[in-house]
Amino acid sequence: MLTLNYIIRRLATAFAIVIGILVLTYILIYLSPGNPAYTWAGRPRGPKAEEAIKMAENELGLNKPLYIQIYIHVNRFFSGDWGLSLRFKQPIIVVITRNLIASLELLIISFSIAVPIGIFLGVISALYRGYLIDKILYLISSLFISFPRFWIAIIFSVLLQSLGINIFGRIAPDYTLSINYVTGSYIIDSLINGRIDIFIDVLIRIIPPSLIVALYPTALTIRVIRFSLSEKLHEEYVKQAISFGLPRNKIVYKYALRGIIPAVSQLQGITFAYSIIDAATVENIFNREGIGSAIVKAIPYNDYPLIIGLLAVTGILFIIINTISDIIQVVSDPRVRI
Amino acid sequence: MKLRYIVLTIVLILIILAISYAALQKKVETTPITSPTETPLPTSKERIVVYAYRDTITGIDPSIEFDTGIVILSNVYEPLLYYDPIKNEFKPALAISWNKVNETAWIFNLRKNVKFHDGTYLTSEAVRFSILRSKLIYEEKGIGPGWIWNCLEDIFIVNETSILFKLKYPVPIPLIVSSAYGAYIYSPNLLRYANASDMIDEKIRLWFEAGNDVGSGPYKIELYKPESEVVLRKFEDWWGWDIVNNSKAPEIVVIKIVEEPASQELGLLDGSIHIATNVAKANINRLLNQGYKIINQTTFHNYILMFNAKRWPTNITDFRKAVLYAVPWNKVIEFAFQGFAKEASGLIPYGYPGYVENLRYEYNVTKAKEILEKLNISNTKLELVITSGYEEEERFASLLKSSLNQLGIDVEIVALPWEQVKEKGVAVWRNPDDAPHMIINDWWPTYPTPYDYLYILHSADIEWNWSGYTNPEYDELIDTAFQLEGIDYDKAIEIYNKAQKVVFDDAIAISIADSIQPYIYDPDRVLIRDEALNPLYMFVIFFQYVEVVS
Amino acid sequence: MNSYVKRYSYRVKSPIRVFLGLLRFNRKFLIGFTIVLTISILSVIGLISPPYYLEGWGIVTEDAMKRQGLAPCIPFNCPSIYHLFGTDDMGRDLLSRILVGAHLALIQMVSVIITSIALGILMGVIAGYSNIYIEKIFTYVMELFIIIPSMVLAAAFITIIGRGMQSVILALILTWSPWYARLTYILVRQLRELDFIRICEAMGFPRTYIMFRHIVPNVAPLIFVEAITDSSSVLVEITSINFLIGAASLTSIDLPDWGMIVGYGVRYIRTFWWISFFPGLFIAVTAFGLILLGDGLSEYISPWLKRRWRLWF
């Protein structure tokens, strides 16, 4: 039941999880070896080195007990000051925003490809259960889950390269300075600037990676819908609808599918978290920027503020997605009680 | 009733997002900075060159940067002179002539009508400001290449275009002034732009790292994203465009950071990268057959293998010698570097001042086995740290591992990113057991003096001395030679040779090979003139000498 | 009394008969099982005596240097019969490396799955059967850990704990056990409503007794079958993480883990395509076999899914 009570409780849980992620990441960073003050001060040597390190420690607040550090950290986080990246000496927000928007583009396009196709194919697979089409779809979905996405990405990129299609990076270098960057997302910016040729170029470069990232969600959706829809189609109300003489599509899409929306949306919420790994491999191979590759590159460098910021942003993103999926669950199925 | 609540939730979420967006907008501007350069929108069909470099840019503060930032700094800023070590001649940049007044004083005459990127003119004050900042920051905070100015006592301004260097002891100042790091000149107006109070204020550094520049070079920084790409735009008012006579110089230069060799190759084939530096050597033949061209630059870039002098068993000199005897040196060039290197001797590369011939170990497995039997060491495990993505180091490490395997020693090869390799190396001073037994450091020059390559084993250098080697005799040798360079150069070289022999006999560090750096480019897009590459400025392509063909 | 029970009791099939029956009649199970069996045998071979032992573990021998970059042995174009999959750029035989890598992959996968099942069932059962505060804390912690992506956690552990397979395995355990914990939690909540548990509660049995004697045996088979299907995703995840941060996650870059070999071979993809191709193929085939195995088992457990019915509308 979508009551105000439920909404507030859900938002409070989400908020608590954000704080939990912040505390967790801070503890992880606290446990790691190395002295961030040393890197922050620019690795000084010589007579004034001790002083410089002490000053850096004061700045970063490293000489206070742990719970006070966590408290300060959470406070600063919510007031918007995420600090400077140790490695780039630029504000964290700037670094994160440009990576986040790139990843978000990729993930949104992938999921908007994956979910409709997955639902459509899953419904076919459930309706024609046991027939040849079902077997083929089952085979395809199993293959998509078991193929390692990095392997497919490599083969795909070699294939596209030999066909002469340009897929390197996010945008052709000739166009790098041609448009005003308003949002940071090349797709939206090229449309705002009215440059259709850049728009098409960016689109060509984003479709193959998003196809690869979309493999896993599609396959999972097909499997889940195949499993749960076949159960649903045996229930009494479907038989009643059939006996009323309602058209088939209406029964399936309007009545039976409603019942499995909770399971599907919860699945999407969790798959979104998993897809970051796929997105990171794809970004690596096609040389794009993004959150996945930023994390992979930031952690070996011990750039603590950046890591904390990236983890927090990832956490917030997934919490938003999960909360939305939970709300969808509650809206569609009044029996669900979170 | 349901619809109402859905709408309410969506409105709530939108309000929260809007508030947080507005709050974040305010916090982004931490310090009010003004940038003196404008960023107009380029028109169509401008000449663009894309240069793929393989490591992240570590910083672009011209007085503090001591690592990969040189790729950008050499195009945006200029030193007083450039030095060409092959022809052994100086090329005037911001200074057109120089005279030695006496042993400890030199006068430099500056070029007239040189503009900085913000429109102001070059004055002696700018030179004094830049050089003193580099020196002061090193003395105060211990970071950066300011040690090259140790010999400098002060700089006196004679008039608007002449400047006097007062030295503490005689040194060949023109060499130092053309150094690859720490000798760049920029405008003192940045005190105003960065709201800084004096020249060593931290705000200046933050202003630089934010992507601003105020140099005098042929290009200025347009977009600075140090982990993915840096975009440079042609500076029309550069003094040298008439002299260089290159009407096809690129107007926009994109320096893309591409760490994976596979991606560099993909970009090259794609047309997205025009000049590539790090392609898998096995693929080069195929690329050449497809019409790409290659320039093999003989460089002073070498790979130095250092042993940990404080950890067992590499703290035993004979053990180190045994390891070195076990490396098949004749195979190193062809297997590890696949032909893109020259044989090395001692620590200093061929052609550099201080090079000593015949400081090589021979490949003699029986000798190695004898030494190990005598020391009664067998079945140990050694740790070797290399930089990840450097194909040459990986292949050399495999070579080392397989030869040591025959002696019963197991080698663990650890590949880390460059910054982590540095951390591991410096750990030898805090806790020798944290640091690896062997580590490979690739080194390129700052300015032509043997001290540049030899001070990495000095016991006071805790930044680059990754072996923990403390030998007061060696320290004294190279320190006296450094001071002697200006007075009696030949004697200084003699002392340097002696120092290298000490290191050789101690088997603490040795250069594996002098690398030859291949630059693969697309001849249908660019033409690279000879002057664009200079081995003293490693990985720098001077884009004013590059012509865009298509 | 005895005859009454005898008439209404089923003849419980022994596991061996179940297994043989599955093999005979369930095609998915058959194919999946053969694939997994082959890979296991190959991994044992790889552990004990691959064709080129030293090269399999990453050492570049003298002979290897002479045969760098040989192509694989396809019919009509076979450079060397001794190297079925060719050699990599340093000359090491690829087949031996893949065999040695097989046992690494299986060890990692099995340790992750078994530990996370154990932890997950434990946590889920405890949470499902406790008072409301522990439940709330439990759901909170579970959701927290499900949300964190495993790669991030793996990279963080590598920084903290150090290199080695244990960091990756630990990170994956921490990411997967909440998933099983959640599943068990839901199942336990459903089971609690059932009569036989209510009777036990009413009879006053201690909670631990009910948990471990009644609930766990009912929950474990379902979770176990689900885990086998998930193990293919786990395998792909482990190899993906090794591919991305391979150089830092293993003790030595020579270690022939499948993901590592692929990651290393990417830069040679246009000349030595087989270095990246074959390990990936092995990963795909192993994961596919595991999925088929898991699906076959779940069809056995819930047989109504196999029902083939004709849609009459």
From TrEMBL, chain B:
UniProt entry keywords in alphabetical sequence: Signal
Domain of life, source organism: Archaea
SUPFAM superfamilies, alphabetized: Periplasmic binding protein-like II (SSF53850)
GO molecular function: peptide transmembrane transporter activity
Segments forming domain Solute-binding protein family: 89-459
Presence of the UniProt keyword Mitochondrion in the record: no
GO BP terms, alphabetized: peptide transport
Gene Ontology CC annotation, any one: periplasmic space
Cited InterPro entries: Peptide/Ni-bd, SBP_5, SBP_5_CS, SBP_5_dom
Family indicated by similarity: Belongs to the bacterial solute-binding protein 5 family.
Protein name, as recorded: ABC transporter substrate-binding protein
Protein species of origin: Ignisphaera aggregans
Automatic annotation (TrEMBL), chain C:
Membrane topology note: Multi-pass membrane protein
Main localization of the protein described in the UniProt heading: membrane
ABC transmembrane type-1 domain: residues covered: 106-294
Domain of life: Archaea
One CC-aspect GO term: plasma membrane
Record has Transcription as a keyword: no
Residue stretches in coiled coil: none
Keyword Magnesium: no
Matching InterPro entries: BP-dependent_transpt_permease, MetI-like, MetI-like_sf
Keyword line: Cell membrane, Membrane, Transmembrane, Transmembrane helix, Transport
CDD domains per UniProt: TM_PBP2
Transmembrane spans: 29-48, 98-125, 137-162, 168-188, 272-294
GO biological process, one term: transmembrane transport
Record localization: Cell membrane
Stored PANTHER family: D,D-DIPEPTIDE TRANSPORT SYSTEM PERMEASE PROTEIN DDPC-RELATED (PTHR43386:SF1), OLIGOPEPTIDE TRANSPORT SYSTEM PERMEASE PROTEIN APPC (PTHR43386)
Family from the record: Belongs to the binding-protein-dependent transport system permease family.
Protein name from the UniProt record: ABC transporter permease
